[in-house]
Amino acid sequence: MLRGALKLIALAFAVWIGLQFLWVTQAVMITAFLGVLLGVSLARPVDWLERMKIPRGLGAPVVLLVGIGILVGIGMAVAPQVAEQSKELTTALPKAIDQFEQWLNKAPVKVLGGGEPQQQQQQQPQQQAQAHGGQQQQQGAQEQQSGQEQQSGQGQGKPQPPQEQKQQGGGLREKLSGQFQSFSSILLGLLSSTFGALAGILIVLFLGMYIAIDPRTYRKGLMHLIPHANRERANELLTTLATVLRSWLVARLIAMVAIGIITTVALVALDVKAAIALGLLAGLLELIPFFGPIMSALPAIGIALADSPQKGLYVLILYILLQQIEGNLITPLILERRLDIPPVLTILAVSALGVVFGVLGMLIAEPLLAVCLVTAKMLYVQDVVGDDVKIRGQD
Predict the structure, then answer these.
(1) Residue 246 in contact with residue 41, Cβ under 8 Å?
(2) What does the pLDDT average to over 263-280?
(3) Which pLDDT belongs to residue 333?
(4) Which residue has the higher pLDDT, 80 or 103?
(5) What 8-state DSSP symbol labels residue 107?
(6) Which is it for the CA torsion 191, 196, 202, 203, positive or negative?
């Protein structure tokens, strides 16, 4: 009895130590997962090159360099337009926020508890000033002239703080700027510094390349940790997981390209400023399920509102239609044919990992959820419960 209690305590302590270790090394674990995802994706074309009598040690770097070259070429082709439109985006977005704030100030919805709208409160002093007549205007002119004489005689004094500019500067734009800065600190996470971003990218690239060069070595290493009676099932699990991860990445890339092109063409048709930059942003944020399209819609709607409320309404309708196209056409045709992930679980996983790990957690949420679901279905539902569950990617 005592020995069983001690074993239970030791197991609980080991689990606690393991969780603490994972929390401290969360950056390394996320980087390792991204490297494995890249390596699994590179393994298929490297296998094809190996059948063409090209060694894996040469094929993996070639595939990686070709992929990087394609991305660099696309970036160089669209970089001038994106850079120019990004400048327009940074100048037009604050103007859109200011115009939206002015519209809110003019709207009568700010009346609370029987108070008067701000516009009427601003018009009352003007009407009272006009009612006084020419006598007060003359007195004001004399006081202004005497004030100018005193100012010229005293020299440059301390300027009074411009209250109107201070009130305008402390409005909606500054509040949104503060919120965006706090959001950016969470959004960037490990990518907060240039060195950290470059180091993380290089680590992911090298991990993916070495895994693609010799995946059998790492699989054999994992097999040595599993009893002989279960190695055949574990080998089948690893093969299925590799297929699922590869399918997810290909599906997401296709969805990103499709959404980016459709968004760019639609924004150009609506004559929205910085259409290419906004379309590129929509394509990149498509990597984050559900929340990415919402994040990409906000700046586009703001830019359109700067031109006219009608254009802002059209852009809002456009992004709603894009969300419907993604949910009812692209996701079923591309993702659901490759993965069996319930939407509710995806939303919960993206939300939870986003809160804990930031944007990197949101990026790995969907493939990590796919890995967990496939493992649970194969090792528990099929082997323990005994239900015949079909898993995509399983032979």
Answers:
(1) yes
(2) 87
(3) 66
(4) 80
(5) S
(6) negative
Report which of residues 355 and 181 the model is more confident about.
355
CA dist list (Å): 250 to 42, 246, 257, 287, 331: 11, 6, 11, 11, 13
**DSSP code for 332:** I
CB 367 within 8 A of CB 395: no
Q: How many CB atoms within 10 Å of residue 5?
A: 9
- Chain mean position to CA 125: 48
Burial grade of 388 (CB within 10 A; 0-12, 13-18, 19 or more): exposed
**Residue whose structure tokens are 């004399």:** 142
Residue 209: the pLDDT is: 92
What is the C-alpha to C-alpha distance for residues 197 and 215, in angstroms, rounded to an integer?
Answer: 26
Chain-centroid distance of CA 128 in Å reads 53
Distance separating alpha carbons of residues 368 and 360, to the nearest angstrom:
12
Tokens of residue 187, six digits = 């959004």
Find tokens 């301390």 and name the residue. Answer: 158
Q: What is the pLDDT of residues 60-99, one digit of tens each?
A: 999 999 989 988 887 787 777 667 766 666 666 666 666 6
Tell me which residue of 303, 302, 283 sits closest to 293, measured CA to CA. 283
**CA angle at 173 for the pair 167 and 178, rounded to the nearest 5°:** 105
Residue 142's Cβ-side half-sphere holds a number of Cα atoms within 13 Å equal to 6
CA-to-CA dists, residue 282 to 166, 278, 288, 323, angstroms: 35, 6, 10, 11
Cβ atoms of 27 and 190 within 8 Å: the answer is: yes
Q: Are 240 and 374 within 8 A, CB to CB?
A: yes
When the pLDDT of each residue in the chain is averaged and rounded to a whole number, the result is: 75
Picking from 15-29, 71-85, 141-155, 351-365, which range would have the lowest pLDDT averaged per residue?
141-155
Q: Check: CB of residue 301 under 8 Å from CB of residue 317.
A: no
